[in-house]
Task: inverse folding
Protein backbone atom coordinates (compact mmCIF):
# COMPACT_ATOMS: atom_id res chain seq x y z
CA UNK A 1 0.00 0.00 0.00
CA UNK A 2 2.84 2.40 0.72
CA UNK A 3 4.41 1.52 -2.64
CA UNK A 4 1.10 2.21 -4.36
CA UNK A 5 0.85 5.51 -2.53
CA UNK A 6 4.39 6.51 -3.59
CA UNK A 7 3.77 5.50 -7.21
CA UNK A 8 0.78 7.84 -7.33
CA UNK A 9 2.76 10.89 -6.11
CA UNK A 10 3.44 13.44 -8.87
CA UNK A 11 6.04 16.20 -9.06
CA UNK A 12 4.12 19.48 -9.06
CA UNK A 13 6.86 22.09 -8.71
CA UNK A 14 10.64 22.38 -8.86
CA UNK A 15 12.88 22.53 -5.79
CA UNK A 16 15.77 23.57 -8.05
CA UNK A 17 13.87 26.44 -9.62
CA UNK A 18 11.96 27.64 -6.55
CA UNK A 19 14.48 27.09 -3.75
CA UNK A 20 18.03 26.32 -4.93
CA UNK A 21 18.05 29.23 -7.38
CA UNK A 22 17.00 31.62 -4.61
CA UNK A 23 19.67 30.24 -2.30
CA UNK A 24 22.28 30.70 -5.04
CA UNK A 25 21.28 34.36 -5.35
CA UNK A 26 22.16 34.86 -1.67
CA UNK A 27 25.73 33.51 -1.87
CA UNK A 28 27.29 36.95 -2.27
CA UNK A 29 25.91 38.03 1.11
CA UNK A 30 25.72 34.83 3.18
CA UNK A 31 27.53 31.55 3.62
CA UNK A 32 25.74 28.64 1.98
CA UNK A 33 26.44 25.02 2.85
CA UNK A 34 25.21 21.63 1.72
CA UNK A 35 24.55 19.59 4.87
CA UNK A 36 23.36 16.37 3.28
CA UNK A 37 21.39 14.86 0.45
CA UNK A 38 18.34 12.74 -0.22
CA UNK A 39 18.01 10.16 -2.97
CA UNK A 40 14.51 8.98 -3.79
CA UNK A 41 14.02 6.72 -6.81
CA UNK A 42 17.31 7.91 -8.29
CA UNK A 43 16.51 11.61 -7.89
CA UNK A 44 19.04 13.51 -5.77
CA UNK A 45 18.08 16.46 -3.59
CA UNK A 46 20.84 18.58 -2.06
CA UNK A 47 19.97 19.74 1.46
CA UNK A 48 21.03 23.36 1.83
CA UNK A 49 21.43 25.79 4.71
CA UNK A 50 22.29 29.48 4.91
CA UNK A 51 24.24 31.10 7.70
CA UNK A 52 25.64 34.47 8.74
CA UNK A 53 28.69 35.51 6.73
CA UNK A 54 30.70 36.70 9.75
CA UNK A 55 29.93 33.84 12.12
CA UNK A 56 31.07 34.62 15.66
CA UNK A 57 31.20 31.78 18.20
CA UNK A 58 30.92 34.37 20.99
CA UNK A 59 27.40 35.28 19.87
CA UNK A 60 24.22 33.35 20.48
CA UNK A 61 22.59 31.61 17.52
CA UNK A 62 19.05 31.84 16.14
CA UNK A 63 17.81 28.85 14.13
CA UNK A 64 15.04 29.17 11.52
CA UNK A 65 13.64 26.09 9.80
CA UNK A 66 11.07 25.76 7.03
CA UNK A 67 9.65 23.09 4.79
CA UNK A 68 9.77 20.28 7.33
CA UNK A 69 6.39 19.53 5.81
CA UNK A 70 7.17 20.19 2.18
CA UNK A 71 3.63 21.07 1.15
CA UNK A 72 3.58 24.02 3.59
CA UNK A 73 4.78 26.56 1.06
CA UNK A 74 5.03 29.76 3.09
CA UNK A 75 7.52 28.26 5.54
CA UNK A 76 9.99 27.69 2.72
CA UNK A 77 9.57 31.05 1.04
CA UNK A 78 9.10 32.93 4.31
CA UNK A 79 12.50 31.69 5.45
CA UNK A 80 14.10 32.72 2.16
CA UNK A 81 12.38 36.12 2.24
CA UNK A 82 13.65 36.63 5.79
CA UNK A 83 17.23 35.97 4.69
CA UNK A 84 16.95 38.23 1.65
CA UNK A 85 15.10 41.12 3.29
CA UNK A 86 15.86 41.08 7.02
CA UNK A 87 18.80 38.88 8.01
CA UNK A 88 21.60 41.38 7.45
CA UNK A 89 20.12 43.63 10.14
CA UNK A 90 21.17 41.02 12.72
CA UNK A 91 24.86 41.01 11.75
CA UNK A 92 27.02 41.30 14.84
CA UNK A 93 24.03 40.72 17.14
CA UNK A 94 23.35 37.01 16.68
CA UNK A 95 24.46 34.22 14.37
CA UNK A 96 21.70 33.07 12.02
CA UNK A 97 21.36 29.51 10.79
CA UNK A 98 18.50 28.94 8.33
CA UNK A 99 17.41 25.63 6.78
CA UNK A 100 14.63 26.82 4.45
CA UNK A 101 13.49 23.52 2.93
CA UNK A 102 14.19 20.47 5.07
CA UNK A 103 11.98 18.17 2.94
CA UNK A 104 12.60 18.93 -0.76
CA UNK A 105 10.96 15.78 -2.17
CA UNK A 106 7.81 16.64 -0.24
CA UNK A 107 8.09 20.24 -1.46
CA UNK A 108 8.10 19.06 -5.08
CA UNK A 109 5.27 16.57 -4.62
CA UNK A 110 3.28 18.81 -2.23
CA UNK A 111 3.21 16.19 0.51
CA UNK A 112 3.30 16.11 4.30
CA UNK A 113 5.29 12.86 4.49
CA UNK A 114 8.58 11.92 2.88
CA UNK A 115 8.73 9.31 0.13
CA UNK A 116 8.69 6.52 2.72
CA UNK A 117 5.35 7.75 4.16
CA UNK A 118 7.13 9.00 7.29
CA UNK A 119 6.26 12.37 8.83
CA UNK A 120 9.57 14.23 9.32
CA UNK A 121 7.95 16.43 11.96
CA UNK A 122 7.37 13.43 14.18
CA UNK A 123 10.88 12.10 13.63
CA UNK A 124 13.32 14.46 15.37
CA UNK A 125 14.91 11.96 17.74
CA UNK A 126 17.97 9.70 17.90
CA UNK A 127 18.19 7.13 15.10
CA UNK A 128 15.46 8.96 13.22
CA UNK A 129 13.66 6.95 10.52
CA UNK A 130 13.38 10.13 8.39
CA UNK A 131 16.55 11.11 6.53
CA UNK A 132 15.34 14.71 6.38
CA UNK A 133 15.12 14.95 10.17
CA UNK A 134 18.40 13.12 10.78
CA UNK A 135 20.28 15.42 8.40
CA UNK A 136 18.85 18.55 10.03
CA UNK A 137 19.84 17.30 13.48
CA UNK A 138 23.40 16.69 12.26
CA UNK A 139 23.50 20.24 10.89
CA UNK A 140 22.35 21.75 14.16
CA UNK A 141 24.22 19.54 16.64
CA UNK A 142 27.56 21.44 16.69
CA UNK A 143 25.71 24.67 17.54
CA UNK A 144 23.15 23.26 19.97
CA UNK A 145 24.68 24.65 23.16
CA UNK A 146 24.65 28.17 21.72
CA UNK A 147 21.16 28.27 20.14
CA UNK A 148 18.94 30.70 22.05
CA UNK A 149 15.94 30.70 19.69
CA UNK A 150 14.39 28.31 17.18
CA UNK A 151 11.46 29.29 14.99
CA UNK A 152 9.98 26.47 12.89
CA UNK A 153 7.69 27.66 10.09
CA UNK A 154 4.52 25.70 9.27
CA UNK A 155 1.02 25.97 7.81
CA UNK A 156 -2.35 24.47 8.67
CA UNK A 157 -4.19 24.05 5.36
CA UNK A 158 -7.57 22.86 4.14
CA UNK A 159 -5.71 19.90 2.62
CA UNK A 160 -4.83 18.78 6.17
CA UNK A 161 -8.48 17.85 6.55
CA UNK A 162 -9.20 16.75 2.97
CA UNK A 163 -6.04 14.67 2.37
CA UNK A 164 -3.37 14.41 5.01
CA UNK A 165 -5.29 13.51 8.17
CA UNK A 166 -7.41 10.89 6.35
CA UNK A 167 -4.17 9.48 4.92
CA UNK A 168 -2.66 9.33 8.41
CA UNK A 169 -5.65 7.40 9.71
CA UNK A 170 -5.48 5.03 6.74
CA UNK A 171 -1.72 4.47 7.15
CA UNK A 172 -2.08 3.69 10.85
CA UNK A 173 -5.27 1.64 10.54
CA UNK A 174 -7.35 4.06 12.60
CA UNK A 175 -10.77 5.56 12.12
CA UNK A 176 -10.65 9.06 10.65
CA UNK A 177 -12.31 11.61 12.92
CA UNK A 178 -13.04 14.92 11.13
CA UNK A 179 -11.62 18.08 12.67
CA UNK A 180 -11.81 21.83 12.17
CA UNK A 181 -9.23 24.01 10.43
CA UNK A 182 -8.73 27.36 12.23
CA UNK A 183 -8.88 30.53 10.17
CA UNK A 184 -5.80 32.53 11.05
CA UNK A 185 -2.26 32.48 12.35
CA UNK A 186 -1.44 30.65 15.57
CA UNK A 187 1.53 29.28 17.47
CA UNK A 188 2.35 25.91 18.96
CA UNK A 189 4.67 26.32 21.93
CA UNK A 190 6.45 23.66 23.98
CA UNK A 191 4.47 22.36 26.96
CA UNK A 192 7.78 21.68 28.73
CA UNK A 193 8.95 25.27 28.14
CA UNK A 194 5.95 27.44 27.19
CA UNK A 195 7.58 30.91 27.31
CA UNK A 196 4.17 32.54 26.95
CA UNK A 197 5.56 36.09 27.04
CA UNK A 198 7.62 35.18 23.98
CA UNK A 199 4.66 33.52 22.23
CA UNK A 200 2.50 36.56 22.92
CA UNK A 201 5.19 38.90 21.60
CA UNK A 202 5.29 36.94 18.32
CA UNK A 203 1.51 36.97 17.95
CA UNK A 204 1.30 40.68 18.78
CA UNK A 205 3.74 41.40 15.95
CA UNK A 206 1.96 39.09 13.53
CA UNK A 207 -1.41 40.69 14.34
CA UNK A 208 -0.15 43.86 12.65
CA UNK A 209 0.11 41.88 9.41
CA UNK A 210 -2.63 39.24 9.49
CA UNK A 211 -5.31 37.91 11.79
CA UNK A 212 -4.76 35.54 14.72
CA UNK A 213 -6.85 32.35 14.77
CA UNK A 214 -9.69 32.34 17.30
CA UNK A 215 -10.37 29.34 19.52
CA UNK A 216 -13.35 27.12 18.69
CA UNK A 217 -16.42 26.67 20.88
CA UNK A 218 -14.46 24.24 23.06
CA UNK A 219 -11.70 26.78 23.71
CA UNK A 220 -9.37 24.79 21.48
CA UNK A 221 -7.38 25.04 18.23
CA UNK A 222 -7.00 21.75 16.30
CA UNK A 223 -8.00 19.82 19.40
CA UNK A 224 -5.58 21.48 21.84
CA UNK A 225 -6.46 23.89 24.64
CA UNK A 226 -5.74 27.55 23.91
CA UNK A 227 -3.48 28.82 26.71
CA UNK A 228 -3.17 32.39 25.41
CA UNK A 229 -4.70 34.10 22.37
CA UNK A 230 -3.57 32.08 19.37
CA UNK A 231 -1.29 29.79 21.39
CA UNK A 232 -1.50 26.04 22.00
CA UNK A 233 1.14 23.73 23.48
CA UNK A 234 2.60 20.37 22.43
CA UNK A 235 5.29 18.27 24.10
CA UNK A 236 7.97 18.90 21.48
CA UNK A 237 10.48 16.24 22.44
CA UNK A 238 7.94 13.51 23.20
CA UNK A 239 6.33 14.03 19.78
CA UNK A 240 9.65 14.29 17.93
CA UNK A 241 8.90 17.79 16.62
CA UNK A 242 11.47 19.86 14.76
CA UNK A 243 11.18 22.74 17.23
CA UNK A 244 12.30 20.37 19.99
CA UNK A 245 15.61 19.32 18.48
CA UNK A 246 17.57 21.91 20.48
CA UNK A 247 17.51 23.06 24.08
CA UNK A 248 16.91 26.68 23.05
CA UNK A 249 15.25 28.94 25.59
CA UNK A 250 12.81 30.44 23.06
CA UNK A 251 11.06 28.04 20.69
CA UNK A 252 7.88 28.20 18.66
CA UNK A 253 6.16 26.54 15.73
CA UNK A 254 4.32 29.06 13.59
CA UNK A 255 1.09 28.02 11.84
CA UNK A 256 -0.21 30.07 8.91
CA UNK A 257 -3.62 29.43 7.31
CA UNK A 258 -2.99 30.09 3.59
CA UNK A 259 -6.51 29.19 2.47
CA UNK A 260 -8.20 32.01 4.36
CA UNK A 261 -10.19 34.47 2.23
CA UNK A 262 -8.65 37.13 4.46
CA UNK A 263 -5.05 36.23 3.55
CA UNK A 264 -2.93 36.67 0.43
CA UNK A 265 0.13 34.62 -0.56
CA UNK A 266 2.30 37.58 0.38
Result:
Amino acid sequence: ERAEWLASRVKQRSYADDVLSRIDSLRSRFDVLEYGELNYSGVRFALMAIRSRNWNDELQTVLVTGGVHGYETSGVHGALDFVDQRAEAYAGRVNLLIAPCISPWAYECVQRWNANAIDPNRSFYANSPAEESAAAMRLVAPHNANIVMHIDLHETTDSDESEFRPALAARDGKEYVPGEIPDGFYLCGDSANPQLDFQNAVNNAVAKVTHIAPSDDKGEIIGSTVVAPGVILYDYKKLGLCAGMTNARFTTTTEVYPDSPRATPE
Strands lie at 31-40, 43-51, 61-66, 95-99, 147-155, 186-190, 220-221, 224-225, 231-234, 250-256. Helices lie at 2-7, 15-24, 73-85, 104-109, 131-140, 158-172, 196-206, 236-239. The two ends are 38 Å apart (CA to CA). Residues 159 and 165 are 8 Å apart (CA to CA).
